[in-house]
Amino acid sequence: MEGMTLDHRQLLPTNVKPMHYSLIIKPDFMTFTYPGRVAINLDVLEESNEISLHTLDLQIQSVSLAVTDSAFDTQAPSNIK
């Protein structure tokens, strides 16, 4: 599912809805970086082969997926764009 454009903003697809964010950020004021971790609780509203997130200027080191509803057949993420 492709994102939609509204004015100058890129909107995320509507097949997955974020419900809660848990953030741990450790700013490094010497290097102007902020390593950290994020956990996002999502509601999957329709079947999809991908989940899109805004990641501009972020360096993602790893990704994991945990499923709490056994109604879905899932695979580990294999391609991060």
Describe the structure.
The two termini are 14 Å apart. The protein has a domain at 14-56. Helices cover 0% and strands 31% of the residues. By secondary structure, it is an all-beta fold. It has strands at 4-6, 9-11, 16-25, 36-44. The strands form two sheets. The chain has a two-stranded antiparallel sheet with strand order 1-2.
Share in β-strands: 25-35%
Cα gyration radius (Å): 15 Å
Tally of individual helices: 0
N- and C-termini, Cα separation: 14 Å
Structural class category: mainly beta
The major β-sheet equals: 2 strands, antiparallel
Helix and strand succession? EEEE
Mean pLDDT: 79
Topology of helices and strands:
Layout: E1 4-6, E2 9-11, E3 16-25, E4 36-44
Antiparallel strand pairs: 1-2, 3-4
Q: Which descriptors apply to this entry?
A:
single chain; two-stranded antiparallel ribbon; two-stranded antiparallel sheet; 81 residues
Structure in a nutshell:
By secondary structure, the protein is mainly β.
